[in-house]
């Protein structure tokens, strides 16, 4: 029907031509050239090779854009290499797998249901701020095991803890998070409870208690890494299903594909475009020489559309059978919060399928990133969507 422009629910792949022709791109970041690896094979190989491509460098440097100027706290375990990485990771694993517990899922389902019911009552909402940000923040109270009221404070920070609209690196904003975490650590020292801060302060690593700085590093990662990524995944899923109502119907009639649908939507959206590594020795990537102390990035978003592995990579196939996407990274550093994020999305899809008959996209402003020659849509700054309850639909 329409032939232009691409609709709100479409997320084009800007990397295809360069990925196929050459396999890498280059982007300037604060005076430093980053080589972006675009093919799934190279992304995986490089993620595995932590000796030549390290995560343990100046805090903030492996993030693109680099956060060295706004943060000195090392995010743990994200900014550590093996074997240190593994020591911390193994201590955190059990806590971050709690989202698999029935009680956690029940609480999450209550949060999602309350938000969707409220949205249905209102009819039309701005999804980023009124739905996704709320959902991400309220769900995070479960992951940290803190009072539900904390979510209000986090909501007031907006969608990214280090970025504001128009400012990719906002130091003033970053210090709000650092101060908040500091205060919470003080509180947990004074009055230990069963929240993540208290549990970590009581955890032993290398035969001694975790330091304040280390606890702060884990919390910093938990707040920063899972924020805009989850918000984009939630918003984009809603927009996609709004524009592709047959897919929402499919989820309604085939609830057994919910797990696969989550993976496919995350593959398609790739909420985090890429993540860097620091090269430790002069070496070649994708037949291209890179020098020691330069950076490469593992471009998850491009790797997820690599036709060498994914059949019809630009199509959303909710029950895609073979789906080794890298939206949660790859190898030792795969996302610590992935279990939580997957449950958030699965619960959201389930509640939408059960309660929402259809959705209509209204006005929106896209959120795009520019990486060298590549312009990539990652989500929306704002988007209005009208929600219709399922009864209305059936009555028609
Ligand atoms: C870092 C990163 C982690 C970084 C898995 O990603 O996410 C980014 O959004 C943050 O800005 O600090 O946590």
The percent of residues in helical segments reads 40-55%
- Straight-line N-to-C gap: 24 Å
Overall pLDDT: 96
- Sheet with the most strands: spatial strand order: 1-2-10-7-3
- The radius of gyration computed from the alpha-carbon positions, rounded to a whole number of angstroms, is 21 Å
Which class of secondary structure composition applies to the elements? alpha+beta
Order of helices and strands: HEEHEHHEHHHHEEHHHHEEEEHHEEH
Strand content: 15-25%
Main beta sheet? 5 strands, mixed
Count of alpha/pi helices: 15
Number of strands: 12
Shape: globular
List low-pLDDT spans: none
What hetero molecules are bound to the protein chains? 6-O-methyl-beta-D-galactopyranose
Task: Report on this structure.
With 396 residues, the chain is an alpha+beta fold. The protein has 15 helices and 12 strands. It has helices at 16-21, 40-48, 84-96, 102-122, 127-144, 150-156, 171-190, 196-201, 212-225, 228-243, 245-253, 258-269, 300-303, 338-355, 390-395; strands spanning 24-29, 32-37, 53-54, 124-126, 204-205, 208-209, 275-279, 283-285, 288-290, 295-298, 356-371, 374-389. The strands form 4 sheets. A 5-stranded mixed sheet has the order 1-2-10-7-3. Strands 4-12-11 form a 3-stranded antiparallel sheet. The mean pLDDT is 96. 6-O-methyl-beta-D-galactopyranose binds at residues 63, 67, 75, 78, 162, 221, 224-225, 228, 272.
């Amino acid at each position: 029907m329409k032939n232009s422009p691409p609709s709100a629910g479409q997320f084009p792949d800007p990397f295809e031509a360069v990925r196929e022709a050459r396999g890498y791109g280059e982007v300037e970041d604060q005076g430093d050239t980053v080589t972006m690896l675009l093919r799934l094979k190279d992304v995986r190989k490089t993620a595995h090779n932590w000796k030549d491509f390290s995560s343990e460098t100046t805090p903030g440097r492996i993030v693109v854009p680099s956060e060295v100027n706004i943060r000195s706290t090392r995010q743990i375990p994200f900014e550590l290499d093996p074997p240190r990485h593994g020591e911390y990771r193994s201590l955190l694993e059990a806590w971050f797998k709690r989202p698999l517990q029935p009680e956690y899922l029940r609480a999450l389902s209550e949060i999602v249901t309350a938000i969707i019911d409220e949205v249905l009552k209102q009819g039309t909402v701005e999804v980023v701020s009124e739905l996704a940000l709320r959902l991400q923040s309220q769900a995070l109270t479960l992951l940290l095991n803190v009072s539900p009221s904390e979510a209000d404070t986090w909501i007031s920070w907006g969608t990214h803890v280090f970025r504001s609209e128009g400012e990719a690196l906002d130091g003033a904003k970053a210090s709000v998070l650092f101060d908040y975490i500091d205060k919470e650590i003080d509180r947990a020292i004074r009055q230990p409870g069963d929240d993540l801060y208290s549990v970590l302060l009581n955890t032993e690593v290398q035969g001694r208690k975790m330091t304040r700085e280390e606890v702060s590093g884990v919390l910093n990662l938990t707040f920063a890494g899972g924020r805009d990524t989850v918000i984009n995944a939630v918003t984009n899923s809603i927009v996609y299903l709004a524009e592709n109502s047959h897919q929402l119907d499919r989820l309604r009639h085939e609830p057994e594909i919910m797990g696969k649908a989550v993976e496919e939507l995350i593959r398609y959206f790739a909420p985090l475009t890429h993540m860097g590594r620091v090269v430790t020795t002069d070496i070649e990537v994708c037949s291209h020489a890179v020098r020691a102390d330069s950076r490469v990035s593992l471009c998850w978003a491009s790797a997820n559309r690599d036709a060498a592995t994914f059949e019809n990579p630009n199509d959303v196939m909710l029950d895609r059978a073979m789906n080794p996407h890298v939206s949660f990274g790859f190898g030792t550093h795969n996302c610590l919060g992935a279990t939580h994020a997957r449950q958030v999305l699965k619960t959201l899809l389930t509640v939408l399928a059960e309660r929402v008959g259809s959705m209509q996209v209204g006005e929106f402003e896209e959120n795009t990133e520019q990486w060298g020659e590549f312009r990539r849509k990652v989500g929306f700054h704002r988007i209005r969507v009208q929600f219709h309850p399922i009864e209305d639909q059936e009555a028609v």
